[in-house]
Amino acid sequence: MTADFVPSRPRLRAELRVSAAGAAELHTPGGVLDVEPPDGMTQDDFVRLLGRLDGRTTVEALAGEHGLDGGLVREVVAPAVVWGLVDDGAPAPAAAGLAVLSRLEDVFHRQLEDLIFAGPFWQAVLERPETVHHNVFHGFGLENWFFLFRENEFDAAVLALAENAEMRTMLNGFYHEEHRHDDIVVRAFEPLGVTKDQLVRARPLPTTSSLIRLLSWWARTDPLFFLATIGILEGRLDSDTAGADGQIAYDAFLSACDRVGVDAGFVGPMREHARVNAGHDHASVSRELFALVPGVDEDTERRWVAKAHLFMEAYAEFFNGILQYYSDPSRPLLRTVDI
Prior knowledge:
- The chain has 339 residues and is mainly alpha-helical.
- Helix 7 crosses helix 17 and helix 12 packs across helix 13.
- The chain is built from 17 helices and seven strands.
- The chain starts with a helix and ends in a 13-residue tail after the last helix.
- It is elongated and about 85 Å long.
- A hairpin with a 2-residue loop joins strand 3 and strand 4.
- A three-stranded antiparallel sheet has the order 2-3-4, covered by helices on one side. The chain has a two-stranded antiparallel sheet with strand order 1-5. Strands 6-7 form a two-stranded antiparallel sheet.
């Protein structure tokens, strides 16, 4: 029975340390386990055996290396398997990067429809823009400017992605194309009497800051998941919708601006930025990057699905925070910090 129970190439899932007295300690996230050799095995052989449980060496080879009986080696490994301290060392089943991204996009798109476009901001903008105060449209542009102005906080963090030179090259191209996009949008505020200096001294809404910080954290700690979000942040452009002035309105927000007659001096730079993004096809960046990812294991995909829900919740709050704050015309457009 033990022969079937013990992996053929056991891998230790704990950190092995040796105390000053020569005793073996297994350090795990849950604590430290003191372990002892079975009868018939010396302490030195026991420590050496544990150190060789690397997932690449068979039980038979381990026994031969140390001049031990295979049954004795299995006697060490079997209880560790029961306690979850040893696994079979086999590569985790993996799916192609694009296949995993496709499944993530299913989650993203369901959340876009169910959480974001069905949420209060987009319901108001899409269904009844005439009831939305113009401050909300201005606030949307403003919070997007804050996002663009701070985009280096997350985009720059993945430029040194070391595992894949081709991906680094593509990311540098994307970063170059995104650089200074805030300078396009900043012109939208000139008709409102708002200067670049005033914008720099202003602070974004907490919901905008939260989204920026979340993306910045993922860019540093889980860069591939961050790259999966780019297509959502840059995408969903509606190039088939004609605006009131006969020009193409590149997304639902610009269409709503046209419908309610938001100042053309404000809308123009916003439309220009949308067209630049569309021209660079930034909605496809995630797919182009994930085409270079050879495989993603099941545990990573499950973790990403959980993060996908968190990302979309934060993204929904980004939009809804705009409606909540800027709907009140008594509130200042700029939340300025005096320095």
